[in-house]
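Entry 14. Ran structure prediction on the chain below.
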Amino acid sequence: MKRNLLSAFITLSSILFITSCGDSYSPITLVSLDEKTIITNNDTIKLTKFTEGEEFNIKGGNGKYIIDIIEKENKDVITYNYNGEKLTITPAKEGSSYLQISDSEDNSSRIVVEVQNKNRKYIVTEVNTDIIGGELTQNQINEISDNMLANSIVKSGGKFEFTYISKEFNNGNVSIWPTESDDCISGIFNQSNSFDDDLKIPTTEFKIMLPSNNSFQEIELNLYEQSEENKYILSQDVTDIYKGQYSNLEKATIKYILIIPSDSNKETNDK
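Output, C-alpha cells:
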C-alpha cells in the first residue's frame, strides 16, 4: 500500500513538473550591450530621429523569440532587425509604437518605443552684461547695463529650447520663454560650429529668426560650455544697438547663464 502511494506521488509530481515548465522561464527582457540598461515589460525606450538607434540582447523566455510591431497605426515609426543574437531598433519618424517580443511558451513582453527629434533645453539662471569702453563714464556703463538687462530677450527663469528637424542637426524650430510665467515665442534657427579665438574654446552659433510686427527679428547667439559641468553661457553681441548713443562703447555683450533642466540630460543635448 505504501509502495502504491509513493508511486502515485511520484507520478503526480512528474505531471505537475511537466505542465508547469512553461512558467519556469524568466521574464523576457532587453539588455543593452554594455549591460547597464535593462528594459522590462511596459518599459519605454526613447530614440532620437536621424540616429542609428540602439542595440540590445534579448534575455529570458525559452530563447525562441518572435518579434513584431503591434501598433497598427504607427508601424513605420521604427524598424528592427534581429540576427538571432542581437536586436537593433532604429528610429524612422516621430511618434510612438509598441514592440512585442514573445516565445513559443507564451511568454511575452511589450516595449514602448518613442521617437523624438533631437532637442536642446536650457533654463536661464542669470543674465549678466559685459561692457567694454575705456572712455565710458561709470554712469554711462550703468545706463547701458540697465538698458541691456531691461531689453534682454530672456530674463532669469526663462527658457530656450532648440528642436532639430534635419539629419544634419543644423536647423530647426526654437521656442523661447522670456520668463518662467510667460508664454513661449516660436521661431526658427540655423546652427553652425566655430572656434572662439579669444576664449580658445569651440562654440555653437545660432542664428534665430523671431516674428516681429509682420516681419522677422534676427538674433545671433553663441553657446559655449563653462568649466563647471552642466553649465553653459549663451552670449548676444548688442554693440550695434547702443553704439550710436554711446560713441565710446567698444563692445556690449549680454550673457545668459544656462543649466540643463532635470527632465533633460547632457547626452541628449550634445548628441
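The chain has four helices and 17 strands. Will compare against last week's run tomorrow.
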